[in-house]
Every structure is written in C-alpha cells, then in structure tokens.
Amino acid sequence: MMRLRSRPAGPASSRPRADEDGFALIEVMVSAVLLITIALATMKLIDSSQQGSARLRSKGVATALAAADLNRLRQTKFSTSTTFPTQTRTTLVDGVQYTIVSKGTWTSSAGILNTCTTSSGTPGQYLRFDSTVTWPNMGNVRPVTAETLMVPRPGEVAITTGGFTMQVVNMAGNPVSGVAVTIAGQTLVTSAAGCVNFTTISPGTYTATYSKGSYVDATGAATGTYANAVITKGNTASKTVLYDVPATITPVKYYLQNTSGSDSTTSTTWSGSYGLSPAQASAIMGATSTTKLFPWSGGYQVFAGGCVGNNPVTYTAEFANAFPASAVAPGPGGQLGASAYLRTATLKVTSVPAKQAVNVRMLPNVAFSAGMATGCDASTRTSQTAPSTPTTSDLTYTWNLPYGVYSYCVDNGTNRYVGRTDTHFNNTPPLGVPTPTATLSVPWSTVKGFSEAGKCDATGITG
What we know:
14% of the residues lie in helices and 38% in strands. The N and C termini lie far apart (152 Å). The protein has helices spanning 18-73, 319-322, 444-447; strands at residues 87-93, 96-107, 126-134, 144-150, 162-169, 180-183, 186-189, 195-201, 204-211, 216-217, 224-231, 236-244, 248-256, 267-268, 274-278, 284-287, 300-304, 327-328, 335-353, 357-364, 382-385, 392-401, 404-411, 415-418, 425-427, 439-443, 452-453. β6 (180-183) and β7 (186-189) form a beta hairpin. Strands 20, 21, 23, 24, 25 and 27 form a six-stranded antiparallel beta sheet that branches. Strands 13, 14, 19, 22 and 26 form a five-stranded mixed beta sheet that branches. Strands 1-2-3-4 form a four-stranded antiparallel beta sheet, with helices on one face. It is built from three helices and 27 strands. By secondary structure, the protein is mostly beta strands. The chain has four domains: 73-150, no CATH class; 162-244, Sandwich (Immunoglobulin-like); 248-341, no CATH class; 343-453.
C-alpha cells in the first residue's frame, strides 16, 4: 500500500504574489473615493438644511410683515380717497432686506351682490387690500401674499360721495355676468344678476365703459359707453344697458328691383357702401362690415347706399313685405344672408346739337329730400357725343342706383348745369312716396347755359 506524505513548504511560499499587491491598492483607492463622496453629500445636506432653515425663517418674517401691513391698511378711511395707488416699501430684519408691495382695488362679491339695489347697511362695493412680501435668495419659495376685504364704515361714504349702479342685460333681457364696468377710475365686474354697485364716486358727470370678450353693445361696439352718468352727493345714479353676443349678416347680394314690385332675381353689382337699419335703433350708415351687429330681435333692413335717404322704408313701409330678403334677423351668434336692391335710373337729354359732347351724372338731391346728404353715393360721370347727323339728337344715360331722390348734372367739359330746383329724379321703390320716376327728360335748351364752372365730377358737388 502506498502512503502520501505532505512536504513542508519552502521559504518561497510565504511571500505574497505581485497581483495581490495591485488588488490591495485598488481597494484603498475605492474606499477613499467612497469616503470623499459620502463626505461631500453630507456637507451638501448640511448646507441645504441650513439654507432651508434660513428660508423658513425668512418666510416666517415675511408672513409677519404681511400681516402687519394689512393691519396698517385696515386703518384706511374710504372718505380719504377713492383711488389707492400701489405702494412699495422696504424694511431690514436680521440683515435681510424685505420688499413689501401694498395694493388696493375695488371689487364686488357675486355671492353677496345678488340684486341691482343696495341698502345703506349692506353696500355692494368692497375694497380689497393685497400685501405681497419678497426677499433675496428666495429660491423656489413663493412670495408671501395676504389679503383682506373692507366695506365702508357707517356714515363714512354718503357724506362726500355718491353711487352708481349699472345693470347689463342681453337682448332677451337676461343679466350678463362677468362684464368689466369702469367709471371714475374704478372697475367692478358684474355679478350673476348682471349688476355692479359703485358707492364711492365724487360728484360730477362721468363716462362709464363696459366690456367682455367678444360681446357688442347696441351700436355694435366691442366696448360699450354710457356718457352721462351724473353723480351727486348722497345719491345713487343707475343705468341699464344692452350687451350681447354679436350677429352676422353675410353675404349681402345686390339685385335690380322688378317693376312689378315683387322680389327680384336679377343680380347686379354695387361698389358703394350699404346701410343697415335695425327696427329698434338708429340706422347704421355707410357700413363696411356686417360681422359685429347687435342681435336686435326686430332684425335689420339692408339697403344699398350710405344715407338715410337710401333706405327704402323712408318711402314705403311695405318694402320689406315686397322684398322679404332685404329684412333679416340673425340671433346672438347667428348668421344670415341678405339682399339689397337697386333701381335703374334713366336720364334723356333731348335735342342735343350735332357733335356736341355731353357729360351727365346723378347727384344726391339735398333740397327735396332730407334723407339725402353730401356724403350719399352718386352715379359715375358718363359721357356721350351727339352724332354729326341729324342736326339734333336725343342722348340716353342709365345707371343702377340705390333708392333716393337725385338731381341731374350736365357739363360740356368746362362748365356745368345742376338741376337743383327743376325736375328731379325719384329713384324710389314701388308704391313709394314720391312716385318713382320712369325716365327723366331734360331739353338741351334748359342746360346749355351751363351756369356753374367746373365738371359734374367735382369734389363735394351736390344736387
């Protein structure tokens, strides 16, 4: 049987190997890096904790400063002033400079102001004071803001000021909330009842304005205006205004009036302006847009031309029945198209000498029609020349014109004759007063004197 014997290790076996020396060095380096990382993180944590503590202390000081500022503002007397400008102050506490911004604004509470009247014990207007405090190195800490509401103290307002109440309603008579109303430098927003109540306005006459988003007033203006708010001491003036989502009338198409008086399908063109006459308000003359119209329940009469005298209902109230497409009533936010009508005006100059050049134009007649004015649309100046034979000829001129009363103008290129006091052209609708003129004939003998200098297309000339 064989026996195995262990041999004692020689002297070389007790020495460490070279690769073991390198591994030990790496362990030392890793340990050092970890130690340094942990130390840096600990220092950052300590520093962050110190900064956080400083910010908390600063926030606490800011809160106390805001509360103290509100206590100061609560001592404000309403009778001192009706405007409260923004105030900015600084104060130093424990080496930190704090900035305090104080602001007073007039406001109202929709939860309290539910009607358009107020009693002496429950005024509808409030003064909101805001106090905001900031300081250096705030980081992600928000400014400290404190606010409070104040009401006039008994007897403090009525002695020297008056009030103003406005209610804003739409076409249906329902209240409109969220409308910003401004008067005497103060702004309030209407409550659910559509109301604002200003209680501290110095006596005088003021203009109140009101606005909200895309709404329009009764005239189609985005910002409504009431220019006669008379404020007297101890009294409250009031006003109710209309404000609603606008309506649109488009497209507006032009047609020739049928001689029978019925609605027409013969289309034509018109390069002048047009008018819009609401049933419940003043007409809009010389319109260039139909996209911002107050939605009157009675609708609009649409017509060609830019004067009251161009409105067909000026001459006959039955026009809308004969031409129903000219009267439309789009609701709030609604859109409808409309038709406007023109009538053919015919003028004949008779017995014109051979080879005579004759220029003719129709002008608004301001002498025979109060609705026609200098700014009304007129026809273009049209030229013709009599032929060489026969000795005399009749020259005929035609235009498609808005309704109205017109004078004729004839010129020879240098001087003109305007028929202001003799026969004029009634371009009025059927069944209208005065009776429409079919064709106006003017003898050459009437105009050949050319009593005025200048052509018929001179600026500012009227009939």
